[in-house]
């Protein structure tokens, strides 16, 4: 199955629409969102309208959590502004999604995905084998996809792979992988072919940026 992967939209409607058009052009069979649709709320209604029309499943991110139907979020005063289609759509969000051999969560799977403090927690990038190993120990899926960091990263159990996020990469079995998907709001999305394990980054703003990890690094979480 060819999956379309989007994350960290942060109400960037035009780039979301570009990503969906790319997925249609490339024949994706299912589109999944790895969280953080919300930013300030200024364009949330129109962002949600685009996602809801396509019935795109989504996991909650740290920015989304207070508007989801999670029990600890019900008292949020922000919710009153979005009664109707926005809250109806965000009520469908889950802490994680699993499809075939893939696991999707907005932050690393070792964290408590039902705890807002865990969702907001950020201990730097996955720059040590110890940080990477925590996710592999917590989740048994072959490929784990996360967002949150606004950049591309791919790791095996022993640490980061040398990959800059500007070319396709094979995540073929039997190896296991942890993948951080770069943000829609930074101009990125991806396709992933579950049968072959090929991950293809898609840059939505024309020519790719500088071909280094730092060249595709975003700034927000």
Describe the protein:
The chain has a six-stranded mixed beta sheet with strand order 3-4-5-9-6-7. Residues about 210-215 have low confidence and may be disordered. Strand 1, helix 1 (about 15-25) and strand 2 form a beta-alpha-beta unit. The chain is globular. It has a single domain (about 1-215), classed as 4-Layer Sandwich (Purple Acid Phosphatase, chain A, domain 2), CATH 3.60.21.10. About 20% of the residues lie in helices and about 20% in strands. The protein contains five helices and eleven strands, in the order E-H-E-H-H-E-E-H-H-E-E-E-E-E-E-E. The protein starts with a strand and ends in an 18-residue tail after the last strand. It is of the alpha/beta class. It has helices at about 15-25, 45-55, 85-90, 115-120, 130-140, and strands spanning about 1-5, 30-35, 95-100, 100-105, 145, 155, 160, 170, 175-180, 190-195, 200-205. About 45% of the residues are buried.
Précis, in short:
This protein is α/β, with parallel strands linked by helices and 221 residues long.
């Amino acid at each position: 199955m060819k999956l379309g992967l989007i994350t960290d939209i942060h109400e960037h409607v035009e780039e979301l629409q570009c990503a969906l058009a790319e997925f249609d052009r490339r024949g994706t069979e299912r589109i999944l969102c790895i969280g953080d649709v919300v930013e300030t709320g200024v364009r949330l209604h129109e962002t949600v309208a685009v996602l809801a029309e396509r019935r795109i499943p989504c996991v909650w991110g740290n920015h989304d959590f207070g508007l989801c139907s999670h029990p600890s979020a019900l008292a949020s005063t922000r919710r009153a502004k979005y009664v109707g289609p926005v809250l109806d759509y965000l009520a469908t969000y889950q802490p994680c999604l699993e499809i075939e051999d893939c696991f999707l969560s907005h932050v690393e799977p070792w964290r408590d995905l039902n705890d807002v403090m865990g969702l907001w927690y950020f201990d730097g990038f996955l720059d040590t084998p110890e940080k990477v190993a925590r996710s592999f120990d917590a989740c048994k899926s072959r490929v784990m996809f996360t967002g949150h960091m606004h950049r591309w990263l791919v790791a095996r159990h022993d640490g980061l792979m040398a990959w800059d996020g500007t070319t396709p990469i094979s995540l073929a079995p039997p190896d296991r992988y942890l993948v951080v998907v770069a943000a829609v709001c930074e101009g990125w999305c991806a396709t992933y072919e579950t049968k072959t394990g090929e991950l293809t980054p898609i840059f939505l703003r024309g020519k790719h940026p500088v071909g280094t990890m730092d060249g595709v690094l975003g700034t927000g979480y």
